[in-house]
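job 3f2a | input accepted
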Amino acid sequence: MAEASSVNVGSGCAEKGPEELSQEPARPGTNISRVKLFDTMVDTFLQKLVAAGSFQRFTDCYKRFYQLQPEMTQRIYDKFVTQLQTSIQEEISEIKAEGNLEAVLIALDAIVEESKDRKEQAWRPSGIPEKDLRSAMAPYLLQQRDALQRRVQRQEAENRQLADAVLAGRRQLEELQLQAQARQQAWQVSHDSQRGLLVGLEPNRRWVLSTIQMSSWCLLWPLDSSLPGANPPDPEQDRSPDP
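job 3f2a | predicted structure (243 res):
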């Protein structure tokens, strides 16, 4: 198992690093994506890390234990290297996910490809800080100003709509108040007229009752005129004077 480990370490040392890959001439018409280059750099780093912490160095630190338990020492070393590689790969994956690194590298590749077709020269500082600051900040500030103006216009339009809605509600409320007042006045007039009618009928109420009573006596008197009190009363005597 020690021999197999030394073979793996030797193969790791034989791998080329990122600086060696960058020194090799790229094939014409081929572009290495930055995502793949980043993964290659991580793999090369892990290989060099394992090579730096070889089994020989590990046993030098634990000579007495290696002499007593060589196979156990080999298993501990293999497990240590495996867990170390796994831990580093997981942390790098978390960093890539948190920073959205793959999308950023892909966007950078796209920017580089687009810049190849441009004929105008790229921006260079003029050496005057004020001028460079204006040239860099002016487009951003103009963009922000336009965005604020559009937002103000939308807010003003919403305010006008709200004002129109408030005015319409006030007009509707005024119309309802006028209708309520008109109905109240009509009810008051009807109530006053009914009250006046009742007041006008009050003096004749007793006379009407006496007339009804007289009519009843007239109908009953021919049947039994011998009964005491059979003579019909005089309605003129029972009629009370008008108040």
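job 3f2a | Residues 208-238 form one domain.
job 3f2a | closed
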